[in-house]
Amino acid sequence: MNLLPGSRRHKNYTYRLLLYWTVVILVLLTLMLIQHRHYVVNLAENEARDYSRLNLDYRAWAARMGGVYVPIDKAAPNPHLVVQGRDVTTTDGRHLTLINPAYMTRMVFEDMRTSSQRGILSKLTSLKPLNPVNAPDEWERAALDAFEQEGIVERSQITAIEGKPYMRLISRFVTEKPCLKCHEHQGYKEGDVRGGITISIPLSEYYSSEVRERGFMIGGFMLLWALVSWGILSASRKYAEYENRLLQSEERFRTVCDWTQDWEYWVNPSGNLEYISPSCEKFTGYSVADFSITPSLLMDVVHADDRHLYAAHRCSAIREISGSDELKFRIIRKDGEIRWIQHLCRSVVRDNVNLGRRVSNRDITDLVHAAQERQKIELQLLQSQKLESLGILAGGIAHDFNNILMAIIGNAELARMRVSPDSPAIGNLQQIDQAACRAADLAKQMLAYSGKGNFLIETLDLNLLLEEMLPMLEVSISKKALLRLNQAPQLPAVDADATQLRQIIMNMVINASEAIGDDNGEIAITTGFMECDKAYLKDFWLDEGLAEGMYVFLVVTDSGCGMDKDTMSKLFDPFFTTKFTGRGLGMAAVQGIVRGHKGGIKVYSNPGQGSTFQVLLPVSSTPAEIAIDPTPNDVWTGSGTVLLVDDEPSVRNVGAEMLLELGFKAITASNGREALEIYKNTPGIFCVILDLTMPQMGGVECFRELQKLDPGVNVVMTSGYSEQEVTERFVNIGVTGFIQKPYNSLGLKNVLKRVLS
What we know:
It is built from 21 helices and 24 strands.
């Protein structure tokens, strides 16, 4: 069987375990043999000690008895014993000699040596021997010195006697009172160490017994070693088979995990990384080793703006024992690329034990970008629909509301012309006119937001326009705000409506001033030009994609309070304002004007860090026109008949009166059919002022019928729509002129002058 790497490791582990077991057995056996040797030596030492104690006991008895008399023929008199009464004769004539304890001991052990095969030896010794035979050898002398100086009672050694091993034990004996009978003359006193008795036990029998027991012991250890080794090998073999199956199963599942397209990893309940798939490198640019060496990399690759969401999700996921959670966030690859990740986290539970969380990450960047693009298209469609709805609303306002304003403005002007300049009513009439003009401006702003305002396009130098506006801007902002103008030299011209550009600049500067509030601050207006590609233009607010090319930019920067994302998302909504009293179209009109000029606008802002508004306008292909001062209004009166056609009586009435003031004869009609009848039956009508929207017959249909009656008819079209909107709808149909409602006598005079010329 081919072993997997794990099995080979297990095989090596088994060999090491057998080696360790063998070493353990050898160490234990060695220790047991050493201990058994000590046991054997102790047995011999105890035997010698028993002999020594027995000897000392009967010596003490003999000393107390004063010795023992024995027949001289059994024991020769002791020549070294000098005592009175050593040899005696009994009354029955037997000759006896005194046997003292030392003599007795020597005789007993000599008898044991001759009668026994063991060869136990005994010797009495002393530093002051009566018998020279009892003189100590070197070892005995050292022991006797130790008895006197160290107070020990015995000493032993293993030595060789006549080539055989012996256990040699020397025990001390102390001078007792009976001993003074024989030894007092040597200077001993009661309690002195007088010498010692050496017992030598042969060790051959002990060693022979030890060898037999050692064989049994070695055999037992070898049997134990063999049984345990067999158990180790058997268990190892079974475990190796199990491990091989486990590793093969793990290899199959690891192969599946390692080759998954998703980025998989497993974290334990402590939050530490247990496994991570190699696909992490495809997702993040970091290898498995990088994540293993730096566990915090799992958090570090998460985009800073999404890190708090991921951290909260991870903490709650670790605490959860069951269930799954899904999260979408961004990561930053090693090369700096930002990718979107769909993160699915699921609990791993086995036998009611939480093993952690299994995580599967899928790259959904393309899906997110597609969704964002789809959302962008939907927003553009919604914006387009909103603009279309507002355009319809603006048309209704232009037709109905401007008709009302027409009557108000016209009558106020006629009243001023007819009353004395000193009349108190002049002020009231002026206020009426100003209020009506503001209402008209509101309607124009709504048209501007829808991109259908009245644009008088000319080639302009934006720097010159700013210089003209500077005094007015300075008085329009807070006194605590410093206005700074940064103009690029040799700025290219733009094709734009000067009035509309002034409205853009004024709105942005006033907004900047209000953002600064009562604090000290700075407003900077910067101009310049640059080459813009699609990558740069894609972030600008615009109706359709801007074309690449050269653009003049106008940047207004303030140091005010700034805006959050929610405010910025509503910035260009009609009537949205952050001011309590705000109620105008403001930035919505700015966006409409910029869109009408085929430009773009972008806002940079953060709370507490001020705001920057950048407007892009396409560079003009022609140089800026030189402004010519208008000539003073001349006193002009006309003559002839003018047919005024409008469905609103108030408009007809005030218009007719304006015509009379200008020297014309006025004829009025309420609809197109009535106008056709009048034109047929009234000769000498040199001009028809024709309303665009009327019941029964509208202005366009009436105009075509008039052309059938008189191909050279002069028709001035009037409407609440802008001139640009009307002329685009009725191009190449021969309209002589256009005047937008509400108009005053001056506007009407200028139009009729052009018709007559």
